[in-house]
Amino acid sequence: MIILRFSPDHLDPKSTTPSYQPNAGPDADAVYSVSVATSQEELLTGAATPGVSVTVPGGLAASTDRTASAGMLWQLIPPAVQAQISNAAQAVQLMVASGDRTIDLLPWELLPSLGKAPSGLSVVRLVPFLLQPPPLSVVLPIRLLLVTSNTRDERSFSDRETVVLRSCLKPAVYKVEELTNATATSAAETIHQFDPHIVHYVGHGGMVGGEGAVLLRDASSGSSDWIRAGQISQALPVSTRLFCASTGFSQRNFDITGLVSFAHSPSTVRLPTCVLNRSDVDEAGVASFWTGFYDRLVSSGGNVLQAFDDSLVGLRSPNSTTPPESFSLVLRDGGAQPLKIAQSEDPTRYAAEVQAQFAARLAADLNEKLKSFQGTELGSKLKESLSEERSRFSTLSSTAARYDTE
Amino acid sequence: MPLQQYDEFRIQIAPDMAAPAQFTLQLLETPLNQMAGPVGAPTAQFLPADLASLRNPATFNGGNLMELQRIGGAVYRAVTNPTIEAALGAAIAFSAAQQKGLRIVFSTIAVDAPQQQAIRVSELPIEVIYTAASGFYAPLLGTPVSRSLQAKPDRPTVDLTPPLRILLVAASPTGLPPADIAREAETIKAGLKDLIDSRMVVLDVCTPPTRTELNNRLRSALYHVVHFAGHGGVGRIGGDPTARAFICMEDANRDLDPLDAFTLDTMLRNCPTVKLVVVTGCSTAALPQPIAGAPFGATAFDGIAQRLVSPGSPSNVSAVVAMQFDLDNAAALAFSKSFYKTVLKPGSTIDEAVTEARAELVAALTMGSPSWANPVLYWRCQDGRPFNVLPFTSIALSPEDEKKIAIINVQIATYRSSLQDLRSQPPAVQNAAKDFRDSIVNKINEFLAQISEILGNAIRIKGGAAAVGQTLDFAVTARLRAPAKLNTVKLKIGYEDTAFEFLSTAKGANATTEPFARNAAGVLELLIDNVTGGATVGPSEIEIAIVRMRVKDGSQSTRMVTIVGLEIDAEPDVIYSKVDGYAFLQDGGAQ
After folding, report:
1. Hey, is the C-beta of A167 within 8 angstroms of any chain B C-beta?
2. For a Cys staple, B16 with which of A40, B22, B89, B124, CB 3.0–4.6 Å?
3. Which residues of B touch A270 (CB under 8 A)?
4. How far is A291 from chain B (nearest CA, A)?
5. Cα nearest neighbour of A136 on chain B
6. How far apart are CA B398 and CA B64, in angstroms?
7. Hey, is the C-beta of A268 within 8 angstroms of any chain B C-beta?
8. Which of A366, A257, A46 is CA-nearest to residue B417?
């Protein structure tokens, strides 16, 4: 696993080496510092390599030339990492972490198309979390809430969207509840009652005040109600371990970059791991990807990363009109395996898993607060609390993990 | 003890310019106004030999009541005459009939006498006045004795919300008789321990005791009192031909750096909140010797104490307490303990505080020791109060404690956020995370206890956990940092009446009486009488009442129940902080 973290150059205190200039276009305008880590721990504790400067060519995100774009993206990777990828004997997992919208919008998923990695290359995004909670054990069927919301003032998606998606979900392993014409209130209520493991939203994206949003329906007027990621996160229980934000094939999306930003929200926004669309799709592509994904999610025991990689295979065929880079996986709270398939309910295991999540969240909050008081006497008090919660998290995680071996 | 109301009996003593070595007396103020006016010369002169005897520690080693009475009688005759005696006796009787005390103030205004061999006005140990009929006046609360350099008080009283901030300057430069300054500081701290513990006093020590550090401190913090402990002296400083009174500061090499009264006065101007200066030095209340040919008007205020409250002083100081003689450790401890405690009583006067301290010294030592007469009080504050001590508002904290509480509040906010996160989960998740929730609740309670600890004495509401429809008992507790007797606790508790329904009150586990309660529109008034049953309770947290509420709404994970008003009658009479309570709520579904 290789993690590349891109930071606006001036924000990286470790940026000490001379910059190298990739084959940037004449309108290159954004300089970033890229550092390399092999784990989230390294990334969060400052153990990543010192950053080196790279210049991101302007217009790269909007380029329609897939090959040229992929080439430019490759040039943004430090040479040492390029060599590591090219010489790897095994498949390489590349994760891109940023938190910067320019980097988030780049089609990093194009990189595998270059064929640089002899044993294969998988690209996902990462919003690092301080502590990764254990996967939540789920006894089949997995509860999935399908949310759509056609509004009076926006292009409507056809009913065919949900028909196709439902066909991707095998009734034996997925218990699906569908919420149509969803409002913020009805969505929150349904989530609270149904307690879904997965929420799958199909609809328009948008940006509100720099934050990614989904378009739900205003209860009184029926018009669009732009619900930001921060608002959605408050309605999601810890038992919702995956959020899918997909666009439809029956209409152009209002602003699909809104879905991208939604999934890339900062770690302080409590969203689970997200699968999303970052460009247009067609019906065949939707059916291919989501059928493969949801099937593989179960067969892999809840491994989202594996399910995601495997479901892209069908989109790489010459017949596919939906390119694989239309789909993106953002690993967040819950990471690559947010849930695991269990044979039976166990209240003790469930309690340990759920509480480990709360402990991880509390530790993350304390760590966030600590940033403001770092190096002060006050910071030491917060560190004590953080240490306690880390310890609690370890204990609960160990309790949950015991069931894997029993 | 109830505070005394005072009438004033003010006598002006001035040198008789027409008759060297003689004083003239004038009665400036008396409750029987028809007796005011010039009243002639004192009955007798006070002799230098008597002053020397009073100042000689050997005279009173172990106490010498008869000698002290003899000297006291001599002083009395030097500052009174038959007219004053009659007026004083009548005034004391009149005030007593009004259930008041009589404040006796000797006003030694403006100029000092030019005599070189006789006792000067400011050297008269007025505090020791004695008559066979009335005994010593100064240690009696009914007749406090003090001095002034003004005919009438002219400095305004300023509001003070405790804690009283004291800057302690304790210096012992090399080359002077060694003073155990560390012990001196510890003695003062020990005397103030109860007040410091109960957050009534914050004591900062000026370290190192150099004039630079003192100046920095005075410019950077809002002190109310400067307390100097160490040596003083009189002499020429540098090339200045005029001898001046000074206090002995240290320079960077710990050598003597004399800080004269004028310079100190100017430095104090940079800290306008300083209203009171206490000087416990060896000779800091003594005046420099007059220099032949020099006008006495120019040197009369050169004594430290006199200078700081003189009409020309640039500082805002309105009262100075200085010692006439050396002060031993036992006396210093007793003095500090009693003096500051009374200063901090709402409504107390500065002469009352000094008199309380004299009484404490009498009790701690003996009447035959002149220690109780040692403190000299000069004041010019209206109503005799440098500070108007506010009985209770919010407590002012030291910057360190404010930081500590701030970070605990950050922790509480973070843990509360976690609790609210948990509260928004589906019932199955809430039930699964019950242990986590309980531990967070305990953690928040621990944090609240830490705040209570920092605040010192506190009345606290302790909540609990309950679901909608259930009853929740809020415990009202008193956290005592030092032994105390709680007589009456009266508090107003604000709560959200959409979230709670008041049901009843009950006697706390450690209280002796049931509380009286009155409830209206989300405010519950509680009166708990005779809380500790007249007993003094040691440092602990005691439950003084129970308030029972029914939970009406569980949409929020936590609700605060706040103390919006608090009045306490307790002994000792110190400030109590308030710590609000948290209720941890569930809806009906979660167990």
Report:
1. no
2. B22
3. 421
4. 29
5. B429
6. 45
7. no
8. A366
- Among candidates B285, B271, B281, which has minimal Cα distance to B317? B271
Q: What are A385-400's pLDDT values in tens digits?
A: 999 999 999 999 999 8
Mode of pairing for the β-strands spanning B225-230 and A2-8: unpaired
* Partners of residue B425 in chain A, C-beta under 8 Å: 237-239
pTM exceeds cut of 0.95: no
- Yes or no: say if A205 and A256 are a contact pair by the CB < 8 Å rule: yes
Which of B429, B430, B440, B443 should one mutate to test binding to chain A, selecting the residue with the greatest count of A CBs within 10 A?
Answer: B429
- Give residue A54's identity as a one-letter amino acid code: V
Decide if A55 touches B, using CB distance below 8 A: no
Handedness of CA B120, B123, B128, B134 (dihedral sign): positive
What would the two tokens of residue B280 be? 């416990």
CB B461 within 8 A of CB B474: yes
Largest CA distance in chain B: 101
Can you tell me the distance from the alpha carbon of A314 to that of A307, in angstroms, rounded to the nearest whole number? 12
Distances (CA, A) of B469 to A58, B174, B219, B551: 62, 74, 58, 5
B199 — pLDDT class (breaks 50, 70, 90): low
CA distance readout (Å), A297 to A91, A161, A162, A259, B73: 20, 21, 19, 22, 105
A98: which 2 tokens? 């940023």
Q: How far apart are CA B292 and CA B406, in angstroms?
A: 62
Q: Which residues neighbour A39 within 8 Å (Cβ) at sequence distance 6 or greater?
A: A1, A3
In this predicted complex, what is the ipTM?
0.86
* Range 190-209 of A in CB contact (< 8 A) with B: 192-193, 195
- Residues in contact with A291: Cβ distance below 8 Å, sequence separation at least 6, in sequence order: A167, A168, A311
Give the sign of the dihedral formed by CA B204, CA B207, CA B210, CA B213: negative
Residues of chain A with pLDDT under 70: 9-29, 377, 404-406
Of A355, A367, A370, A377, which to mutate for an interface test with B (greatest number of B Cβ within 10 Å)? A355
